[in-house]
TrEMBL record:
It comes from the Bacteria. This is peptide-methionine (R)-S-oxide reductase. One of its GO terms (molecular function) is peptide-methionine (R)-S-oxide reductase activity. The lineage of its organism: Bacteria, Bacillati, Actinomycetota, Actinomycetes, Mycobacteriales. Residues 16-140 form the MsrB domain. It holds the Pfam family SelR. It comes from Nocardia lasii. It is an enzyme of class 1 (oxidoreductase).
């Protein structure tokens, strides 16, 4: 997981017009413009289905259901990415607060934010708070 402020070049690079053709307007707003979907409305907020969560923009594997937990925060929460290189962590000082943005390392799409030290009973004490609209779930066995 890179947390360097100078981002590596994404493996998938599309123009804004190409991204707009690939994503619907809500997906584009979140994935490419770092918007946030409303809490408690996302497709995967309370999903218990076992499987792999991939980036909706580029299909790179990001998280697994085995690392998903109930945080009751309104968005899907994971305590660790599927692979340490699946995401990039980037300082985010927008909106008058200090946060850490989570990006897909493959296409640099915005996924959400990661928080630490909130007291959740997880192995990492981290909460990757991810927009459902940034993800696509591939259930096990399909």
């Amino acid at each position: 997981m890179s947390s360097d402020t100078s981002l590596p070049t994404p493996r998938i690079q599309l123009t804004p017009q190409q991204w707009r053709a690939k994503l619907d307007p809500q997906e584009y707003a979140v994935l490419r413009e770092a918007a946030t979907e409303r809490p408690f409305v996302g497709e995967y907020t309370d999903t218990k289905t076992e499987g792999v969560y991939s980036c909706r923009a580029c299909d790179a594997e990001l998280f697994r259901s085995t690392e998903k937990f109930d945080s009751h925060c309104g968005w899907p929460s994971f305590f660790d990415p599927a692979d340490s290189d699946a995401v990039i962590l980037k300082p985010d000082d927008s909106m008058g607060m200090r946060r850490v943005e989570v990006l897909c390392s493959n296409c640099h799409s915005h996924l959400g934010h990661v928080f630490e030290g909130e007291g959740y009973p997880t192995p990492t004490d981290q909460r990757y708070c991810i927009n459902s609209i940034s993800l696509r779930l591939e259930p096990d066995g399909e």
